[in-house]
Amino acid sequence: MIELNQVSLQRGTQTLLKEASLRIHDGQKIALIGPNGAGKSTLFALLNGELTLDGGELGIPAKWRIAHMAQEVEASERTALDYAIDGDKVYRTIEAGITNARNDQELTHWLDQMDQHQGYQVPVRAEQLLHGLGFATADMQRAVKDFSGGWRIRLNLAQALMMPSDLLLLDEPTNHLDLEATLWLEGWLKQYPGTLLFISHDRDFIDGVADHIVHLYQQQLTLYPGNYSAYERIRAEKLAQQQTLYEKQQTRVSEIEQFVARFRAKASKAKQAQSRLKELQRMELIAPAHVDSPFRFEFPCYEQMSSPLLSLEQASLGYGDKVLLPNIKLSIVPGHRVGLLGPNGAGKSTLLKTLCQDIPLLTGQRTHGEHMRIGYFAQHQLESLDTSASGALILQRLRPQASDQEIRNFLGGFGFNGDRALEVIEPFSGGEKARLALACVAWMKPNLLILDEPTNHLDIEMREALTLALQNFPGAIVIVSHDRHLLKATVDEYWLVDQGKVQEFDGDLDDYHQYLATRVELSPSGSSMPGAAVNNSGAAVDRKEQKRLEAEKRQRLAPLRKQLEKAEKRMEKLQSQLATVEEQLGDTALYDAARKADLQKLLTEQAKLKGELEEVEMEWMSISEELESAE
């Protein structure tokens, strides 16, 4: 068990934790969330022994093995496979012992150690990890220095997963993963037997892995049971109650202050005035609930539209002599909202770059409408930003006719408020640069948005703002993203890019997950069946049979869903009744001696409702867990 007791932690002059307490039990899978800069990564560094406390106590079992995911990796001549295996330091020690054994006795000792460690399976496990994270077989022997920054981060993740551990610390593990690798990692972490603490801004990933949420906010650590969806519901209820209590309290504060001001000078009332003044001093003021996101923006759309906006005819896509997607035919029209799916390396980014003319067609024809305006976002946009300029200057260069106030108002929606819009962007964080790159895309009023992993480096608040902006965008959207929540909320159809084809995918993200899980080799050429689900034995599953099985599953789970719905309705009713009672308790006249019986009756009713609500909430959690495990 990990225990933080009245912990205080500072970095420079900034206080990140102030007398914060938290208890983490063995085997829990906890997502650490909170605003950027709140101290999440610093807390990880503390748990990893890289920092010391400024106050309080931290207890971690002395024998616990702690694995963590490094955020940087130096260029190295080591192969990807060796680099991943390096994460298992015990294996490397045993390996060195076998190599350097001076006699048969030492060799026997180290061979026994290798058996106990199951070391002969270590290289196999490392290959499986790397495959799961998207590395091809040919990549195993490539040098680390030959990989790009994002792929090196994947190697760091593989190294952390390779280490046998009791506590696993992962800081934004999905940030450089595609959807397929994200789904694989989610499944791996579900099976991890130790204690997991991870930082992520991907709410669907958190929902799939976490059984508790720790919210780092205002220098405190608050533990919530359940996944991110449960956290949102519980916190929303708390904030609503907090706001109600705050408003009632402010009414009472005003009454006390008015009484003191009126009667402090009167001898007959002086004692009562002093009593109320002490009450005011004792009262713990409740901070108003601030739930508004700092980000609020939209994607302005170019006023005119062409139909189609963009078309490819008999097009071959790829690089140099390498054709990834031959003979492609597609058309994008106004209102199209498309999510691209497909395994790593199948050609999703190649398709996007070709649509944007970042790379030329190898053969075929690309045509676009007269009024087409593309807004393209990809990771290289961050690298191409002029870091010696301010955000305001960058937007002014794009549209010189825009006024300074118009630019500053626009940047404010992306979190660059006041003079922040005028600051040179060189020291900005990755998240801030990503926000600015999105602002540049939106600033040009596109009517076709082409987005390649737009959520990398963005926190949950900004991702939610991006989701809302895309929902309200009237133009066409083509997007690649590993953020399932963003895809579910913003696209209407999916195109599958696989086996050299681009075709409509008949299903949703759950169907795609199944497609990936059961994708098998069906022909000597290594081609599988795009768009068709297959079972574990490799036989094609008939679509009608699949729908029948899904219907049976829905029927089997229907009683649980009814119980859950009944519990939810009961909770809503109790919450409404409790709110009514607490509103009545806010009436100051109720506390007069003549109304003592009425007060007691309401207090009894309040206690009864709170007890019933707690029971129903526990029942709801139990049914939710049962339903989740059954699914």
Q: Could you name the key traits of this structure?
A:
about 20% strand, 20 helices, 18 strands, six-stranded mixed sheet, alpha/beta, DNA binding, Rossmann fold
Percent helix range? 40-55%
Strands, count: 18
The CATH superfamily of the largest domain bears the name P-loop containing nucleotide triphosphate hydrolases
Proper CATH architecture of the largest domain: 3-Layer(aba) Sandwich
Overall pLDDT: 83
Number of domains: 5
CATH topology of the largest domain: Rossmann fold
H/I helix tally: 20
Structural class: alpha/beta
Shape: globular
Q: Hey, roughly how much beta strand do the residues contain?
A: 15-25%
Identify low-pLDDT runs: 520-541
CATH class of the largest domain: Alpha Beta
Largest sheet: 6 strands, mixed
Rg, rounded, reads: 29 Å
- Widest beta sheet: strand line-up: 5-6-7-3-8-9
Beginning-to-end CA distance, first to last residue: 30 Å
Protein name: Probable ATP-binding protein YheS
GO molecular function: ATP binding; ATP hydrolysis activity; DNA binding
InterPro entries: AAA+_ATPase, ABC_tran_C, ABC_tran_Xtn, ABC_transporter-like_ATP-bd, ABC_transporter-like_CS, ABCF, P-loop_NTPase, Val-tRNA_synth_C_sf
Organism: Parathalassolituus penaei
